[in-house]
Amino acid sequence: MDISRKSKPTASQIIFITLFLLYMIIPIIATYVFSIATRWDRSILPEGYTLQGYRDAMKNPYFLITLKNSLVLSFGSVLVSLLLIVPTVYWVHLKVRLAKPLLDILMILPFGIPGVVLALALVQVYNFAPLNRSPVLLTSAMVVFTMPFMYRSVSNNLEAIDIPTLTEAAQSLGANTIDILVKVIIPNILPGILSGSLLVFATVFAEFTLARLIVGAGFKTFPMLLVEYTRKDGTIAAGLSVISFTIAWIVSLLILWVGGKGMKTSQDVIKAH
């Protein structure tokens, strides 16, 4: 039997994949082109090209402020999600397996709660200083909103490894719980942690509704600035969208690069032992 012949994609598969890629890529390319177009409403191609939209966007005094706020919010949400979810899910998989179905159900709830409802509920419940309409409350809301992404990625990777055996082996060598989690479990589930971190970062960085309703102008984020320009100047709004895409991709590549380095180091240590 010729296995190589069977593994070749069919013409219909190639067409389907090509159409899917075009469907995903064309809007992004169009946004990039529109951001540098002088005018693009009377012909198939822009009538000219300019970077004036980017210059105008960067001249806005809130450009760097909102960019910094969004980055702080995104990285903060990723960090809090990791600190909450990784130890909890590890403990449930190791000691309280009966609670896993309940945890799976709870992790579905954020998908069914609209962002508007979540934001208004948090504002009403935490209507006191210093949490009222603060970045801390916004970060907490973002963690709840993105929790399913981190949970599912971490949980799936924990299912793929033998947690009891790894834990018992580490304990027999004198490791405590923190050492086991940091030096044994996390290196083995690093792909899941990276996937969850990327999903959380991308979602939080682009989130508008929660930020607008919880903190408003008190902690202005990059999506708020983008939405403001959609009502004023489409070219500048497109430029801000391109900047947002680019930053998300760069951060994603950095996270993957750091994660790849960490995985390589862990493998080298294991080989050395």
In CATH, the architecture of the largest domain is: Orthogonal Bundle
Helical residue percent band:
over 70%
- What's the structural domain tally? 2
Distance between the termini: 42 Å
The description of the largest β-sheet is:
none
Which regions are unreliable across 5 or more consecutive residues at pLDDT < 50?
A: none
Q: What is the 3D shape?
A: globular
Secondary-structure content class: mainly alpha
CATH topology of the largest domain: MetI-like fold
Please give the count of helices: 13
The H-level CATH homologous superfamily of the largest domain, spelled out, is MetI-like
Assembly state: single chain
| CATH hierarchy, class of the largest domain | Mainly Alpha
Strand content: under 5%
Number of distinct beta strands: 0
Mean pLDDT, to the nearest integer, reads 84
Radius of gyration equals 23 Å
